[in-house]
Amino acid sequence: MSVQGCIADKTVADPGPGLPDRVVPARDLPDWVPAGAWLYLSHVGAGQSLRALGRDHGCHASTVLRQVRQFENRRDDPLVDTALRRLDLALRGSPFPLDGMETRPMTSRSQALSKLPDSSTVTDEGMAALRHLSLPDTLLIVAADMPKAAVTRDSAGQTPERLAVLDSAVAEAMALIGWITLVRLGRVCSYRINSSGRMALRQHCARNGLALPSDIGSENGAARRLRYGIAESPVAVLARRLDKDGRRFLGDAELQAAGQLRTDFVMGQLEDASFETARALEQQLQARQVRGSNLAPPGTRAARQRVLDVLRDLGPDLGDVALRCCCRLEGVESAEQALGWSARSGKIVLRIALQRMVRHYRRLDDDQMLIG
Fold it and tell me: Would you identify the CATH topology of the domain 119-223?
């Protein structure tokens, strides 16, 4: 069985008449395309092996495989799915169809790539949309048959107010980068800004000397205090520490394991779940009683199952510190106090948990995945 057989049955794009079966390497894509999407298109679309991509990027093939799986699972999101199809068709030199019946005339690959929004367009229009989306009760509305997306704000007892209109290709880029999250699926889909989008907006405003929107620090209408950003998690801070021999306290494998658990936690829509211990979350996942959105596409269910498998492997205490520090991004000292542990013991327990997670993910790669 090939590696592609291990990936869900959705394909990037089916080559039509006159189209090549393989695409050029995805390095020709615009700069705004995430590295994970680059790897996904290179593997699934261009047919490059995981090992070859790992060698090119200086990482293990299993790391590439996790990126491929992540973007395959994200194709349950209509905007992400459309963005990947648009990118793949551009690499094949095929225009993106206007609808199911009408298509543009055939163009060359370079012309098709030039039709994609460039980085400046995605940044300018995307950040303008994020500024509006940072306001309370504001959503990005997208319809499958409409070339434009709209940012609207609900007012009590009144017709929703339209704040901005942007091209659907820019909205697709925002979803692919990970700035917005799907909250309602249907013929008309709704999206809301997420923590990654808020962080990107903060960084954009800081670089350009712009004032932050007044509600940038709030989410779902309530103030939310974040101690760590996406790039500065408690595990990343701990990894910079050196032991008495001058070696890093945590290695790259432990950092990747923490990132994988955090990714599955977010993909599984568990951020708003109510639980105090790993055992409580494990019971909710087993009984399928996780509070929050009822939207649970296959990718979400798969991510929840991976979190459940990790918790079962770790057990109560190791699972508690992993959930607090890797998923909820709590500091080690805060986790120690909440769990009633002695001072400076949390980092040792966390390292043991991360080492066991590394072995867990390696067993998954060896037993359940075929790496090409």
Answer: Arc Repressor Mutant, subunit A (1.10.10)
